[in-house]
Amino acid sequence: MSSGAAQSRQRTRSSSSTDALLAIFWGGLACGVFDLTQAFIAWGLMGVKPVSILHHVASGLLGPKSFRGGAATAALGLLLHFVIAFGAATTYWISSRKIRFMIEHAMISGLLFGEAVFLFMYFVVVPLSAAPKGHFTTATLITGPIGHMFLVGLPIAVAVRHYSRAE
């Protein structure tokens, strides 16, 4: 094998890794910022303060005591929120490597993926977590089934499509 072919393959592999990291970074960042912003707005309209939202996220790990943790548990909630957002972006990227439809039809795939993320979080992750169990409200509807389609799945899908070069 010629060294030119090996270098070309190495450049392609390196470029592919860079594309993956950029897609996951930008998709996860946009998803995390958009989702948190809409949560602050929707729950804020119901009188919930942003720090309480972050405490609630941290309560998935710490339970009800997270609401007494102040800035430290709010920071933990923020970190956990973005871990989940980057995890969702990573899941979409990996899935799109096998299911080309997710790149070729990013808009519909992103909307469906956002809904799947909501369903997985609401019916699997939250019930298995230490978070106090809540009830379905108008804010849940706005931030959940509606918000996740447009503010979670769509930005991730668009970022992945943008960084998915012809392979």
Q: Categorize the overall geometry.
A: globular
Low-confidence spans: pLDDT under 50, at least 5 residues? 6-11
Number of strands: 0
Largest sheet: none
**What structural class results from the helix and strand content?**
mainly alpha
Radius of gyration: 18 Å
Distance between the termini: 21 Å
pLDDT averaged over residues: 91
Oligomer: single chain
Alpha plus pi helix count: 6
Order of helices and strands: HHHHHH
Residue share in helices?
A: over 70%
Q: How much beta, percentage-wise?
A: under 5%
Number of domains in the coordinates?
1
Could you describe the 3D structure shown?
This protein has one domain. The model is unreliable at 6-11 (pLDDT under 50). Helices cover 82% and strands 0% of the residues. The protein is mainly alpha-helical and 167 residues long.
Gist of the model:
The chain is an all-alpha fold and 167 residues long.
What's the structural blueprint in terms of helices and strands?
Layout: H1 3-44, H2 50-62, H3 70-98, H4 101-104, H5 106-128, H6 138-163
Give a quick set of tags describing it:
82% helix, mainly alpha, 167 residues, 6 helices
